[in-house]
Each structure stands twice: as C-alpha cells, then as structure tokens.
Design goal:
By secondary structure, the protein is α/β, with parallel strands linked by helices. Among the domains are: 2-173, no CATH class; 176-246, Beta-grasp domain (Ubiquitin-like (UB roll)); 270-418, Domain of unknown function (DUF4445) (Nucleotidyltransferase, domain 5).
Length: 664
C-alpha cells in the first residue's frame, strides 16, 4: 500500500513520513482547544467535536492499524490573514484525501485529514445525518493528535516560514505481508494486507476453506497450520510473514472397484469423468482407447465458501455472485485435470463428462440458477450440453454436462440410474442417493417416480462440528470390538474429522449402547463403558474429534427427510415398502456406508434388510460410463425424460412422516 500512496501523491505534496501507530499520542486534553471555537466549526460539523462524542471508540478505530503514512502540503499566503489562501489550501488537501479514498477503495485503511470537513458547502449537522459518511473524515486535531509533535516524530517540518500554513493528514494502514500457502502439496506465495482476517485473505486469493458458522469460530472447519501451529483461520489476523498449511485443498486418490464391463468406444487420448457434488468432487481419469482407469481423485467443493447447500448458492447467484461461483468451480476442475496431467505425464485431456445436480450444472455452464430458488422453480435448461472446453474455461477438448430431470433432480441421479441399470430391473427397485440434496427414484409397475429431499449437508459432514467430506483422514467407519470403539479413516490417514458414513456408524453404536435415547438426546449416565467418552457435554471419538448434541439434531433432520421421502415416493408409485425387491444406496458415503447401520438408525426402512446394494459413488460411475460410450449419453437423455417428479415441499403427507421419523 505504501508504494501506491507514494505514487498517488507524487508531485502533489511537499513532504511524507511514516510512523508506527503505537507512537502516536491521542490526547483527549487537546480537544479542549476545540471548545474555544477559534475555527468557528465547533458544534457545527459532523466531523468535529462534540459530534464526535464517542472519542474512545473513534480512537480505537485508528489504533487497530499498525502504521500511519503522514503527508503535508505547504500553502503560501499573501499575508498572515489570507483566509482565502488558507481555505484554498485546505480544499486542495481535502481533494487529495478523496482521491486517496477512491484509489484505495478495495483496501482496509482509515484517514485523518486537515481541518474540519468541508465536502458539503453547508454541513447537515445536527438536523440530519452526514450526507457523505463514506468520504468525510475527522481532522488529526479532532481526535487529540498533536500535529506539531507528529511532524517531529516523522522528520517533517511543522513551520515552513512566514506567510505559510502547512496542512497535515495521515493514512492509517496495515503493511502488506507475504504468506507461503501450502495446498495440495503445492506451495504458493501470496501478498495480503497486514491485520487482515486470515480466512478472508485466503479466500480472496482463491484458496478454499470451509466456514459453516460464517467465521464465528464455532464450527472449527477452517483449521489451518500457521507457522506449524493449529489455528482457526477465521480467528487469526495476519500480523507478519507466515507459512500456512491447508489440509482441505488436497486432492487424494479415491478407492476404486471399477471394472469396465460394457462396450467402450475406442478413441485416442484421455478423458475425465466428474461427479461434481455440492460438498465433494470426485474425478476419474481414463484411457479412452480401452476404458482403463488411470487415476481417481476427490476433494471438498471449493464453492462451499458461498454456502454449504444448494439453496444458499442459488441465493448467492441471485445476489450477483454467479461469476465468482462459476470461476471457483472451473478453477477447481482445472486444478484436478492439471493434477492428473502432471502425475501421469499427460499432455491433453480430450473429453470431460460431468454429472451434477441441476443448480451446479447451471453454474458450470455459467447460467444463472436463480429461477430455481423461487416458485415455480423453473430451470433454464435440463438437456445434455456438449461444448468446446474453451467456451466454459475447462482445460479439455470437449465438455459434456449430463441432462437433469427437474429443478432438484439433476444429472447426478440420472447418472446413478444409468450406473445401477435401473431400467433392467424386472421388479420394483429403489435408488437412494444420499447427499446434501437427497435424491430418490423408484421404478415401479407404474413407471419411474422421483423426488428430492432437502436432507441438508449433514450426510457429507457439513454442519457437523467435527465433520468433513469424504476426503483423506475422514472417519468413514466405526465399530465395537470387545467394548472398544474402533474407527477407520479414508486412506488410513490420521483422523481429521467425521464424514457421513462414519456418522451413521457412530450414531448406530451410540443407540445400541444406550448413549442416545429415542428422542436423540445424549444419555450421560448410561451404563455402557463408552459413557466414559462423554466430556463437557460431548462424545469424544479421539482426543480432539467429537460429537455434540447439535450434531445429533442435524443428523436427525437429514435422516428423517430421507426416510419420509422414501415413504411418500413409494405411496405415489402405488407400492408398499415390502414390495421393493432391491434398494440401491448411492452417494458421497462412497464405499464405506454400512447398510446395517443405516437400517438401525431409521435412515432406511426395516423392510430393506437383505435387499440393499451399496453402490458407492453411483453418479461418478454413471459419468464414467457416459465418458467411455456415447450410447450411454443418449440413454441418460431418455432416463431424464421418463421420470415423473413427486413434489414434497408442500406435501402434508411428507410433513406428517417427517415428524414421525425424527425419533430413533
């Protein structure tokens, strides 16, 4: 900032200097001089005493900065009583201050000027509020600064000879610091303003960090290592150069049991299939010649900085933030593609196929999804889109967005239906995709019926205090062995949090051990040996990973929405739960969800015992099939047209069942 200021004021002022703010004395006693009203502005201006009544709060505003850039302008007068010359000089100084405000409008700073504010010909004080609070500023003297002493401290002259008056002003600021950010195994150096909030600074530089609590320091999702020590980014100020390590930005290999059991169109080059989920992104690199899997990767969706669920992101787009969400999505996809290319020595990616919910498809296409947020919830498009990668900014030859069914039944559930070959089922079958936006489709003698439930992001670790997506280090499984709680993490890494499948297992264990009652309330006096894990109202899984009562409530809302949605959908399709021959379970839980635990907690009906097939990432599988064979893209088009949508939003039956399924 200092260089910008010097360049802006070059040739326009006579002297400049710098001083640490802690060396500036704010003396309230000096304000008594204002009471003599020698300037004629006392009690006549919003920027002068006594209008500046809360002196301490005002001074604190300037003390939060580390340094002050002081500048002065000498005005030559015809004689000591040249009032017009004095006023002309003050106006010139005021014009410089306005210029500085405009030039630094995107930075954090504060200004103290020279003399009382005269932006308006006549101040609105006291009859009405200040007309221009964004550019008006008090003088140095109005907050008790001894200007003569300030000049001495900065090596500037206060008196510049007879028939002169020297005006002083100061810009309070924090110096810029360099941060070395380690993300995804890559080191990047960025410059941020001193005093900036670390979370905001990192996001501004394009680094993703979740903060479900809005930066209040409650959710603890923005943990980083700053200079080797664990810290919450939202509660950390940048006060010097530092190294910051991010765990959430890493891409890691995804477990895979993929086998190519279908015809592959033999083409040259490589392709990438992506399941672009609201919370987690999973991507797969394939050889197009034979369909062989080269690599898989997953990461948390960086768009979560704009909101943890679909509705909040639609709202952000309606507020004018579509370019930012689109850019964030495209940047992350390109990072994954570049990661694949660098790791495997690949020059180019020929095709990218993406399965995503309807809102995400709009954002990826740079189409505003805001119509999805208001009745009648009309999508701008539902059909499959194929475009050159350069048109959407993705580093690939062609980008294919799979078709959606409706506003809240997207290309992800279409890809899931393709993956489990729901069309081939002779009997009644159910597909449940457990994600932030739960999607359910049933195949019955009457045809396909689909519904979307606002399960919320709890299944994918969001809004759970120690929750995380299905990334390396997420607790994905839990079981009891000889009375001891045993957990498994994704990639066998050190535990960093709990993902959805781990949450299902843990809650099933807590219910079995009597540590949670039917209402979902913690039972601290339970007889189970695991009751010793209760401390300070929390149930600890590791020394620093735990479940809270609020976490259980969040999960109850999610599981109740899914359970009620299944009941309503089966009724609409004219079948009973016992008539369902097969239940396909898909979603971000990946390969880890235990069907028995899902039934034990009431997420899935008791009638589903023995009928459940865990698909893992069905959306990703469908995207891979569509990548490797164009016929499957056409099948996706047909699937999207055949599903009848069952609305749940204002369905009284759904509301009734939702309440019934809240209990465990």
């Amino acid at each position: 900032m200092i260089n910008i200021l010097k360049e802006m004021l070059k040739g326009k002022v006579d002297a400049v200097g710098e001083i640490p703010v802690k060396k500036i004395v704010f003396n309230e006693e000096l304000l008594k001089g204002c009471e003599t009203n020698r300037c004629g502005r006392y009690n006549r201006n919003w920027m002068c005493p006594p209008a500046l009544a809360d002196q301490r709060a005002l001074v604190d505003k300037y003390k939060k900065y580390e340094r002050a850039f002081v500048f002065s302008k000498i005005v030559f007068l015809d004689d000591p009583f040249d009032a017009e010359g004095m006023e002309r000089g003050r106006k010139e100084m005021e014009a410089l201050i306005v210029e500085i405000r405009l030039g630094l409008k995107n930075r954090d700073f504060a200004i103290l000027g020279a003399g009382s504010c005269s932006i308006c010909r006549e101040c609105s004080y006291p009859s009405s509020p200040c007309r221009h609070p964004e550019i008006a500023c008090p003088s140095l003297e109005a907050v008790g600064v001894d200007v003569a002493e300030l000049a001495t401290e900065t090596g500037m002259k206060y008196y510049n000879g007879p028939n002169t008056v020297t005006y002083f002003a100061a810009v309070f600021y924090n110096p810029d610091y360099k941060l070395k950010v380690i993300s995804g195994g890559k080191a990047t150096e960025v410059t941020v303003a001193g005093g900036a909030n670390l979370l905001a600074a990192l996001r501004d530089k394009g680094f993703y960090l979740a903060a479900d609590c809005g930066g209040a320091g409650v959710c603890k999702k923005c943990k980083v290592k700053a200079e080797g020590k664990t810290a919450l980014a939202c509660q950390t100020r940048v006060t010097g150069e530092m190294m910051v390590e991010l765990s959430t930005g890493e891409y890691h290999a995804t477990p895979d049991d993929w086998e190519t059991r279908f015809p592959v169109e033999k083409k040259s080059g490589y392709g990438v299939a992506i399941d672009f989920g609201t919370t987690t992104i999973a991507a797969y690199l394939h050889k197009l010649e034979d369909g062989a899997t080269v690599a898989g990767a997953s990461a948390l969706n960086a768009q979560a900085m704009f909101g943890s669920d679909v509705v909040s992101r639609i709202k952000k787009c309606a507020e004018g933030h579509l370019p930012a969400l689109h850019e964030t999505a495209i940047k992350q996809i390109n990072e994954i593609i570049d990661w694949f290319k660098a790791d495997h020595g690949i020059a180019n990616v020929a095709e990218v196929v993406i399965a995503a919910n309807t809102a995400m498809l709009h954002i990826l296409a740079n189409v505003n999804p805001s119509p999805l947020g208001v009745a009648p919830f009309t999508p701008v498009f539902l059909e499959r889109r194929e475009t050159p990668g350069e048109e959407v900014g993705i580093n690939a030859g062609t980008v294919i967005l799979l078709p959606a069914i409706g506003p809240y039944l997207g290309g992800d559930i279409v890809a899931g239906m393709l993956a489990c070959n729901l069309a081939a089922e002779r009997e009644t079958a159910l597909l449940v995709d457990l994600g932030t936006n739960g999607e359910i489709v049933i195949k019955s003698p009457r045809g396909y019926y689909g519904a979307s439930v606002a399960a919320g992001p709890a299944f994918e670790g969001a809004r759970i205090e120690c929750g995380t997506g299905g990334i390396a280090g997420a607790i994905a499984k839990a079981n009891l062995k000889k009375g001891k709680l045993i957990t498994e993490t994704v990639g066998n890494k050190s535990a960093i949090g709990i993902c959805g499948s781990g949450l299902v297992d843990l809650i099933a264990i807590l219910i079995k051990e009597g540590l949670i009652d039917e209402a979902g309330t913690f039972c601290f006096d339970a007889k189970s040996p695991l009751a010793a894990n209760f401390r300070n109202g929390r149930f600890y899984i590791t020394s620093d990973i735990y479940l809270t009562q609020k976490d259980i409530r969040e999960f109850q809302l999610a599981k109740s929405a899914v359970a009620a949605g299944i009941r309503v959908l089966t009724e609409a399709a004219g079948v009973n739960l016992k008539d369902i021959e097969r239940i396909y379970l898909a979603g971000g839980f990946g390969f880890y969800l235990n069907p028995k635990s899902a039934v034990a907690i009431g997420l899935l009906p008791e009638e589903s015992v023995g009928k459940i097939t865990a698909l893992g990432n069905a959306s990703g599988r469908g995207a891979r099939m569509a990548l490797l064979n164009g016929a499957y893209r056409e099948r996706c088009d047909a699937i999207a047209r055949e599903v009848k949508i069952v609305e749940l939003a204002h369905n009284p039956r759904f509301s009734q069942l939702f309440i019934e399924h809240m209990s465990f």
